[in-house]
Amino acid sequence: MTQSVEELRRESERNREQLTKTVDQLRLQITDTAADIQSKVSPQHIKSEVSDFISSKTASWINSLKQHAKENPMQAIGRDRHCGAGDADGAWLSAAAFDDWGGACIEFKERA
């Protein structure tokens, strides 16, 4: 069965409208994606991500140190530990007693 010219025009118009909607949706998605990318590579976002990462790692390290000191208090009080790779660097780590708020007191000092 053949279609009349009028039917072909109506079908063509429906297809054109569908195509226009599809292109508009794609344009919107691309715009949103580009905005997301611009936001994620902005200096402010990168600075925030790095800051959050460092804060998280620092908190984790401090919590681990506190836990270790609670489990082994004699190691944490008044005992020097060498923290360098060799004698030439001269750095020693001293972990002192916990302060009144439960925070670990850590200091680096030069070897005499």
Radius of gyration, rounded?
33 Å
Strand order of the largest sheet: 1-2-3
> What is the average of the pLDDT values?
76
Please describe the biggest sheet, giving its number of strands, its sense, and whether it closes into a barrel: 3 strands, antiparallel
Query: What string gives the helices and strands in order?
Result: HHHEEE
Helix content: 55-70%
What is the number of helical segments per DSSP (H or I, 4+ residues)? 3
Which class of secondary structure composition applies to the elements? alpha+beta
User: Stretches where pLDDT falls below 50 for ≥5 residues?
Assistant: 79-112
Quote the beta fraction.
5-15%
Describe this structure in words.
With 112 residues, the protein is α+β, with helices and mostly antiparallel strands. The chain has 2 domains: 1-41; 43-112, no CATH class. 62% of the residues lie in helices and 12% in strands. It is built from 3 helices and 3 strands; from the N terminus they run H-H-H-E-E-E. The protein has helices at 5-40, 43-71, 73-76, and strands spanning 79-82, 91-95, 106-110. Strands 1-2-3 form a 3-stranded antiparallel beta sheet. A hairpin with an 8-residue loop joins strand 1 and strand 2 (91-95). The protein is rod-shaped. 2% of the residues are buried.
Short description:
The protein is α+β, with helices and mostly antiparallel strands. It is built from three helices and three strands, in the order αααβββ.
